[in-house]
Amino acid sequence: MKKLFLILFVGMISLTSNAQQTRELDEISQQNSWLKLGLNLGVPIGDLSDYSKLAFGVEAAAQFMRTDNYGLGITTGYTKYYNKDNASLDGSEKGFGAIPLGLMFRYYPQPSGFFAGTDVGYTFFTDFNQNEGGAYIRPQLGYHNYNWNVFAFYNQVFRADPSIDVQTIGLAVTHNLRFK
What does pTM read for this prediction? Predict the structure, then answer.
């Protein structure tokens, strides 16, 4: 799985390596920077699927278009993992929460259409295994236009305690709010 993520990341970098006008951070405008607010819905997979049936969350990201095709930013949010009936993970009857804090990378081949990207960072847990978090990666493929992004994602949290994997696949939608 790690090789797949590395191949995706190298592929995105190589696609953006052609000569393009780059922008500096002091050039932030409503044409190249925005706040993304959205919702996500996921299904736990791997070991976690024995305990959790559903993940629902909110997300927020600030994105700056470094070139016309390549965006960088920061991202966070909150996802609630709901327990299956009669299943409890670490004694938590109500499930647990995940708060990611990461960097986002996006490649947009066209001003509207398909895109590829990934988020990488650290996830903090609430009500889960002494709240021990871990590094995460969240590759994405989706469709975008000027105002909306709809995408499928895979999310994995790599924890020091390997007793249970935290993996999710899902769908998300975000709305772009322009900076003034």
Answer: 0.81
